[in-house]
Amino acid sequence: MTLNGWFQILLYFAVILLLTKPMGVFMARVFSREKTWLDPVLRPVERLIYKLTCVDENHEMRWTEYSIAMLLFSAVSMLLLYLLERTQQWLPLNPQKFAAIPQDLAFNTAASFTTNTNWQFYTGEQVMSYLTQMAGLAFHNFTSAAVGMALAVAFIRGIARREKDTLGNFWVDMTRATLWVLAPLCVVASLVLVSQGVIQNFRPYDSVKLVEPQQVQKVGQDGKPVVGPDGKPVMEKVNEQVIAQGPIASQEAIKQLGTNGGGFMNANSAHPFENPTPFSNFFEMVLIFAIPAGFTYTLGRMTGSQRHGWAVFAAMAVLFFVGVTTAYWAESRGNPLLAGTDQQASTMQPGGNMEGKEVRFGIANSALFATVTTDASCGAVNSAHDSYTPLGGMVPLVNIMLGEIVFGGVGAGMYGVLIFVVISVFIAGLMVGRTPEYLGKKIEAYDVKMAMLYVLIFPLAILVLSAISALTPSGLATLSNAGPHGLSEILYAFTSGTGNNGSAFAGLGSNRWYNLAMGFTMLIGRFLMIVPMLAVAGSLGRKKIVPPSQGTFPVTTPLFTTLLVSVIIIVGALTFFPALSLGPILEHLLMHAGKTF
Amino acid sequence: MSGKDSKSKSLWDTKIVRRALLDSVIKLSPRTMMRNPVMFVVEVGSAITTVLLLKEAFAHQPGFGFNLQITLWLWFTVLFANFAEAMAEGRGKAQAETLRRAKSETVANRILANGNTETVSGSKLRVGDLVLVSAGEIIPGDGEVVYGVASVDESAITGESAPVIRESGGDRSAVTGGTRVLSDQITVRITSNPGETFLDRMIALVEGAERQKTPNEIALNILLAGLTVVFLLAVVTLQPYAIYSGSPQTVFVLVSLLVCLIPTTIGALLSAIGIAGMDRLVQHNVLAMSGRAVEAAGDVNTLLLDKTGTITLGNRQATEFMAAPGVSNDQLADSAQLSSLPDETPEGRSIVVLAKEKYGLRGRELSANQAQFVPFSAQTRMSGVNFDGRVIRKGAVDAIAKYLNEGGSVLPKEVQANVETIARSGGTPLVVAENNRALGVVHLKDIVKGGIRERFAQLRAMGIRTIMITGDNPLTAAAIAREAGVDDFLAQATPKDKMDLIKREQTEGKLVAMTGDGTNDAPALAQSDVGVAMNTGTQAAKEAGNMVDLDSNPTKLLEIVEIGKQLLMTRGSLTTFSIANDVAKYFAIIPAMFAGTFPVLNALNIMHLATPQSAILSAVIFNALIIIALIPLALRGVKYRPMSAEALLRRNLLIYGAGGVIVPFIGIKVIDVIIRSLGLV
Fold first, then answer.
1. Quick one: which of A240, A271, A30, A18 has its CA closest to A152?
2. Distances from the Cα of B487 to the Cαs of B401, B490, B532, in angstroms?
3. Which of B488, B494, B452, B448 is nearest to B471 (CA)?
4. Which pLDDT does position B1 carry in this prediction?
5. What is the pLDDT of residues B448-504, one digit of tens each?
6. Cβ neighbours of residue B382 closer than 8 Å, sequence gap 6 or more
7. Helices (H) and strands (E) in chain A, counts
8. What's the sign of the alpha-carbon dihedral A169, A175, A181, A182?
9. What does each C-alpha distance from A340 to A335, A337, A343, B22 come to in angstroms?
């Protein structure tokens, strides 16, 4: 670890800290339908949208109607994306003449983008037309983020409202999230990215002559290296490289801001066209946390307890620093198997474990990016998590296992952490000798039931599907590593899918089992969890508010922050420790004993 | 009963323990266990390992001794949980038995329509029947005295041996079946049918026969069931990962891991905590009609306290004589004493006492022919004495002023001024006049109970607001409120005002507790969240409230609140402890499971447990023994100290959260050393 590295990490956190209040205030105004400076331009657009879609913007929805509207919207838009993928060969903006996406992959991708996961079993620049990327994938990048924000606002309203049956209007929340927050920020962010060299065009792919022709293994039609009669791999000489093009800058902004993470290119934010400079890298990381961090302030403002908002922010900040410190420490320590080699950071080299990392980012910015992208449900990557040291690679995995509540996905992080708040308040609230109360709302059997359902679905999907994969031939077929590392790859895939993160540990190939299982687990991790979450919100909204007193459970103090952090860690750790002990932990111990996989 | 002696009863009364041991085996019936999802899972796990063990017994496989021990300890875990519940119930059952003795078959003298009586069995009485009860007889059922007055021994219910007076009319008319009339004769109208009497309800309550889970207990059970499912998932899916890693586990080990992880500690003690909470109330001589009421007591935000009897001693006392100009204090004291000698009211007696203490005036005998006592009447609102040519009257200022006017004189300005000073300070001025001349004022003062101010300060620290209810005027009320340190007061309160206040507090989301004894308190008692009726009160009040205080001590509301809080705190603390325990258990069991295949995993064996077998067995034994170790805490409750929620939370998190992480590391290590030295593995 270097001073310079720490300086960049702290600078990053400082920028997030500064952005939290303005973002939070702005979003609180937007969702409370108060006046903002963008109103003169956007109000007419908004009204027109409601007119065309016959939405009554003053209609308030109960949690059930809110859920149904959200589910219907997601189902229809998922179907549209599926159809677009299946018909792209007949549609415009397809200069590379890409064919239709196969059924199971198209399903997987549709589920992936609808759920804000952006798990990519495809290679963007090799199969998706520009139209599919823009009208299909980027469209979902906006809407899935807007849906998440709407849900978080609905939950916050449930906490804030007193004896009210309704949580707001899904269509209005989603429209306002898109028009006021996502769209304007993306316009600005795209321009900033273009200034750094991110490309934006509709050109066919370039083909260039290599300065230095390469000898590479010949790869057959089945994707496997061709082996000659002598048992040795067949080599071929490559003189030319195809360089993918496309409207990347506009995709890149929403990919980060909406914590989507689905890259235009397979290499995602490691690709120089997506993320060319250290500044663009820094900027992209800021985009990931901008909305989720702001939501903590929105929470405080809308519930009338700003200090509670900051207490939640503090809990997230603690978990963020634990993660980034561990990852940075593990990666800069280097590889013990290369003892004797100089792995020290110096002016000549970044040092540490540089395998799978970009030289222009180095250890600090790779570890930071990996932490941030999994703290949030983004899943964009600028380095290969698969190539991290076992402990370094465990950080992103654990971040997702904790439920992506360290700032978290846009909206999803907020309602995810609030479920943990409800559970923390319930367990510890009893210890002050009262029926647990959260900001004046009594937490009762129904709320606990729904919160536990939310908590339960997550490990259910991850652990069961991983267990099936670890035992079945189709689950093991596309595994590129054996031993504990292989188990980590399986675990990571289902954790990332269920957590709607979308980052990949890589090393796990696509096949029919994974396409379908991952597709379903993404849907489970999103929608099966949202419904009980909204049920809690609906139930909270109907309750009376008990005025705070000396005897009220404190949710604004450092003690509460400590409690929340402990509950998050303990619940996560207790659930996943057995699996982790056979994956990354075992791999770490074996590596130090000199054994790798 | 019960009440008083059970306080001295030790936690481990041999009779109760013996019975609890038997009950814990009876409770193994799956139908009983199903009510407790956590322990049911343990029982199923134990059953599975038992079946496998029986199969192994014939196969002569290695590791039989280890598997046998695991199986035994799993059963012990279930038994210990049942034992905890049986212990809590046992204390109630012992009390119920004493009560039943009071319920022995009684004989009643039913009054017939023609005025004659017939002798019938007590169990034949129905609501509305009139019975005659004479000295020495047991009152055959709950009822209301409609004629007569008697002293009654209620020790069977309250444990209090001093007899109480029961008389027709007023607020002391309720009698309870099973109590004994000591003197005189009363006519009682029966108000409840056999099987529904107070005694019957009390027996059912302390026995826990009607025990239903309270709302918070249900919520906690859901949380525990949810956690159990999470751990079931973690353990069931661990086997595929273990197979993938080439290190499959035996069912014994997997069940051990599962049982150690699921929250068995709190699961085992949860119902015992609830029963013990009710039991603690009974020990304070309070009967809660439902567990829900006990929980609500912990949540109370506002206490409505009657001034008289709760905040102040029941009666005012004379504290000062303030003579009119030209009158000496001795003169005033003399007249005041004379007028009060025949006055049996506490105020009257206090004047006599003050005159004696301050002015050395001894009590005099006033024979009936010398003196004529004028009792207080609603018309004159004065009392006094005509003695030896002296006409002495004392009364409220307006009554005396009117009396003087009629006689052609006026109240001196100075006396009027004194009256106002006293009223402003919260006292009651009593003007004394003799032969149509005002002598001065006696200062009657409400005496605030000792220590009550501190109690209110504690309540405030706990976030509970106290409101004093009084019929006094606002000026007097404000002064006493200030002296007692209550947060607010309701002066000149009518039953309707009281009701409105409760409703207003409740619309703000607050929970209200109050005490009451009169029939006119009944609606407010019913409206309040915790309504404590005094046992001396009317039947209507007792029906309306959800608790009855057998000692009829309104200050007990404070203890009731504390017991409610203690109940919830005990649940929360043991839940936290139970979950925190899991960390150590993971570090014991996970390395033990896989160290055979992957010796490097011994790095996680931070307790340095001797062998994989000893590690797993130690964790299972610890998990079982901790239940027994915590039974006293569950029954007695976590110690409650009045402090702010923040301070309480910090304290309990430290003890039960951090402690819960550390204790099992030590405990498991110690057990490991012991079982190694005993050569058990």
1. A30
2. 36, 11, 21
3. B494
4. 36
5. 888 888 888 888 887 889 999 888 788 888 888 888 889 999 988 888 888 999 999
6. B374, B376, B393, B394, B395, B399, B400, B403
7. 22, 6
8. positive
9. 10, 9, 9, 69
Residue B551's pLDDT is 80
DSSP string covering B99-123: HHHHTS--EEEEEPTTS-EEEEEGG
CA B285: distance to chain centroid? 7
What is the spatial distance between Cα B189 and Cα B543, in angstroms, rounded to a whole number? 16
- The CA distance from A306 to the nearest CA of chain B, in Å, is 18
Mean pLDDT per 10-residue section of chain B, whose length is 681 residues:
44 82 90 90 96 86 87 96 90 76 76 85 84 87 86 76 76 80 87 79 69 84 94 94 93 95 94 87 83 86 84 80 87 86 78 84 67 77 82 87 86 88 83 89 85 84 87 83 90 86 89 83 88 81 85 82 91 94 92 91 92 94 96 90 86 93 96 91 75
Please report which helix (H) or strand (E) contains residue A426, including its range: helix A412-429
- Shortest distance, CA B230 to any CA of chain A (angstroms): 6
Q: State the smallest CA–CA distance between residue A160 and chain B in angstroms.
A: 14
- Residue whose pair of structure tokens reads 């956007």 in the numeric block: A42
User: What is the per-residue pLDDT for B368?
Assistant: 56
Q: Give the residue from chain B lying closest to A575, CA to CA.
A: B234
Cα separation, A286 vs A270, whole angstroms: 16
Task: Find tokens 């030289």 and name the residue.
Answer: A359
Which A residues 69-108 touch B at CB under 8 Å? none
Asked if A463 is an interface residue toward chain B (Cβ–Cβ < 8 A), one would say: yes
Distance in angstroms (rounded) separating the CA atoms of residues A204 and A206: 7
Helix (H) or strand (E) holding B638: none
Chain A residues inside the 8 Å CB shell of B650: 559
Q: How far apart are alpha carbons B36 and B27 in whole angstroms? A: 11
A317-364 confidence digits (pLDDT tens): 999 999 999 999 999 998 888 888 888 888 888 889 999 999 999 999
Task: Give the tens place of pLDDT for each residue, B271-319.
Answer: 899 888 888 888 888 888 877 888 889 889 899 988 877 788 767 788 8
Q: Which ipTM was obtained for this model?
A: 0.91
Which residues of chain A are within 8 Å of residue B641 when distances are taken between CB atoms? none
Predicted pLDDT at B363: 67
Scan residues 519-578 of A and list those with Cβ closer than 8 Å to B.
544-547, 549-554, 557, 559, 562-563, 566, 570, 573-578
Question: Could you tell me where the beta strands, DSSP code E, fall in B176-295?
Answer: 180-183, 185-190, 286-288
Closest to A301 measured CA to CA, from A146, A151, A160, A442 = A160
Q: Which of B153, B306, B446, B549 is catalytic?
A: B306
Per the annotation, the verdict on B500 as an active-site residue is no
Range A302-316 average pLDDT: 96
Number of H helices, E strands in chain B: 24, 22
What is the spatial distance between Cα A450 and Cα A455, in angstroms, rounded to a whole number?
9
Distance from CA of A92 to the nearest CA of B (A): 47
Tell me, what's the pLDDT at B366?
64
- Residue A145 to residue A182: CA distance in whole angstroms: 8
Provide the residue count of chain A.
597
With contact defined as beta carbons under 8 Å apart, do B541 and B522 qualify?
A: yes
What residue in A sits closest to B233 (Cα-Cα)? A460
- B143-147 and B174-175 strand pairing: antiparallel
Distance CA A203, CA A125 (A): 12
Nearest residue in B to A447, CA atom: B219
Q: Which two tokens stand for residue B359?
A: 């002015």
User: What is the three-class DSSP state of B446?
Assistant: coil
Structure tokens at A172: 């209005």
A-chain residue closest to B228, CA distance = A456
In chain B, which residues have their Cβ closer than 8 Å to the Cβ of A443?
219
Rg of chain B on CA atoms, in Å: 33
